[in-house]
């Protein structure tokens, strides 16, 4: 991994970001010590994970395991909206059960890019939007409900 840059850090169990970008600059190959879940709301392009290049479009979900070398490849002139959730693999391991290994969502067993049907994607967006809304508010119990919504999102993906 020495030839690739390690990016980011995660001090909490998970972190959500909702980003809108008008045009993107090229991103170098890099890796994280946490898992990455990307829900692509709008945009098209490519995504490379562990030397495998995927064509992605609005409605796709990208799953990147911890320490997997990856990079997005989006057109510099297009709009790109996505929800990104960084997740601690230890947290996923602790929350898994014998029948539902949440870390398996990020392994190559499912593939790195999922193409849910329209109904499945709307379901993922609904959960993701509720999670984002909950985390943005400073109400008591937001961490508990946030964790529950993240678990719902991951189990939904695991069931695809």
Question: Could you please describe the fold and organization of this structure?
Answer:
The structure is a single chain. By secondary structure, the protein is an alpha+beta fold. 28% of the residues lie in helices and 33% in strands. The chain has three helices and ten strands, in the order βββββββββαβαα. The strands form three sheets. It has a five-stranded antiparallel β-sheet. β5 and β6 (52-57) form a beta hairpin. α2 packs antiparallel against α3 (142-159). The radius of gyration is 15 Å and the shape is globular. The termini are far apart.
Our Rg estimate from Cα atoms comes to 15 Å
Strand proportion: 25-35%
| Terminal Cα span | 31 Å
Q: How does the helix and strand content classify structurally?
A: alpha+beta
Count of individual helical segments? 3
The level of helicity is 25-40%
Give a quick account of the main beta sheet: strands, pairing sense, barrel closure.
Answer: 5 strands, antiparallel
Tell me the total number of β-strands. 10
Low-pLDDT stretches: none
Task: Explain briefly what this protein structure is.
The protein has 160 residues and is an alpha+beta fold. It has three helices and ten strands, in the order E-E-E-E-E-E-E-E-E-H-E-H-H.
